Records
---
Amino acid sequence: MVKIDKFERPIISLRISITNRCNVKCFYCHHDGIIPQKYEMTPEEIMRISQVAKNIGIIKIRLSGGEPLIRKDIIDIVNSISKIGFTDVSITTNGILLEEYAQPLKDAGLDRINVSFDTLNPETYRFITKSDYVNQVKRGIEKAVEVGLYPVKVNMVVMRGLNHEEIWDMFHFCKETGAVLQLIELLKTENCPDEDFFDDYYYDMSIIEKKLLEKADNVKTRRFMQDRKKYYLEGGEIEVVKPMDNTEFCKNCTRLRITPEGKLKPCLLRNDNLVDLMEPIRRGVSDEYLESLFVEAITNREPYYAGC
Ligand code: SAM
């Protein structure tokens, strides 16, 4: 039975960060709002938490990080979670290891995948990530489509002067590959780098949305997906992920998060209301007790940006 918080938001999705470690260093990364810790949950602990989440009405699980594909046990983790019976099991990855992992992930029961890929230009990629994996990521995206992960979404954080002029190239790459482009507005959080980075690179997505509206054959708004707009054009699709630091985002937020060390995190933008699950799990508590901790986190859920 789906739980509804006191702001009438159904809690249906869980994003589990399974590691803090990453194989690239994107200069803008907000690390999913998580303060880095050394500890990582075991596959058994991740599976237990997922099962309890299912019991309290969660229907969608997304694995994230850090970079989830650098965990050697990623296939076991996906295998055990997908057996629980969620409507949707997905991963967000930077795609560097995807060519190798796409088929095993599909075989393990993964439904779909989001690949963070901001540029096709090797120099810009190097500037953003301090690495040279453009072709590897492209092959990873192609492979994910080929093995039948669906949909394969490409997450492009749009940054002024860095990649904002590449949107159409990226759109055509995605269309030709069979992937869907998601444009993401740069977000400023307390985990982000220095003060200037946001002023230097922030790009107002309403400029793109205006162009998309002119070109689109059809536009759909996705309720409970933060009212995201999906534009259909030239036989392809582009989704625009609205900024997260506003009341609309909070109003439609249906997600809980789990940090790599096993704390329930009710809000991307806050770290002062986490609920620890690992200490009770190690103490040997029952599933019912863990469910009550989920309910506690849901009950105390407050929109970060009030007004919803
Ligand atoms: N390593 C995985 C990946 O690259 O997808 C998962 C973690 S990464 C933190 C998750 C997503 O957050 C990526 O799509 C990334 O582009 C996005 N992201 C990170 N920092 C951001 C920021 N400051 N503004 C907007 N999106 C950001």
Note: The CA atoms of residues 71 and 293 lie 27 Å apart.
---
Amino acid sequence: MRLILLGPPGAGKGTQAQRLVAKYGLVQLSTGDMLRAAVNAGTPIGHQVADIMARGALCPDEIVVGIVEERIQRSDARKGFILDGFPRTVPQAEALDRMLARHGVALDAVIELRVNEAALLRRIESRIAEMRARGEKLRDDDNPDVLHRRLAAYRQLTEPLIAYYRRQGSLRTVDGMAAIPEVTAAIDAVLPSKPATAKPAGPDDGPKKKRTTKAVSRGPTIGKKSAKLSAHARKRPEGRKMTGRQP
Ligand code: AMP
């Protein structure tokens, strides 16, 4: 099973991903964790993204897309994965569509954790204050100012993905404000019973697959993508650089 968890920072994506890992034996691919690991290890990518992450802005699309493509090809991800924190922009989602088509796999569902932003802010701010009071170590981006910026980045750049995946027919929305076990149960209830079939690779999906000239049948979860979107994707010049826009 291949899933995306979509929702603003603090919506509980990480918590729900861990529960899905335990239940279905999937791997959790958190781009935030991968980027933090790169920063902590002092890799070239880590140096490129450290300041961006500390500000609460989004890292460049091409960096994030590159690390996801490398990660999904490892053996532990073959059985399935949960993308947590990726994609976060429409260009990332388009790159993911092309990447999955190239590898002959399909998304089973995109789970949106819908939250009330004001309540979420109160919840996270009180969690940060409690951690500070206990003297616990906080992440660099765990402070109210940065959190506001991360939420603004979510609204501006990531929220359009809800419409993107709704058009594809893969969006499933659950109430992310409910108690953790209830959210888990709601996710279970919306997961498809049958695995999705891979979408045939398109013109931009690289040379690995044969192109067909006939209209293609897409898998059940990505079959409703609008003709307008597909045409837009086809027009993208090969190798176009995708730059993460900063909020
Ligand atoms: P997260 O742990 O998912 O909240 O991510 C922490 C930070 O990592 C974000 O605020 C971004 O700076 C960066 N990041 C994580 N995933 C992405 C992504 N898909 N695109 C761009 N930046 C990302």
Note: Residues 207-247 have pLDDT under 50 and may be disordered.
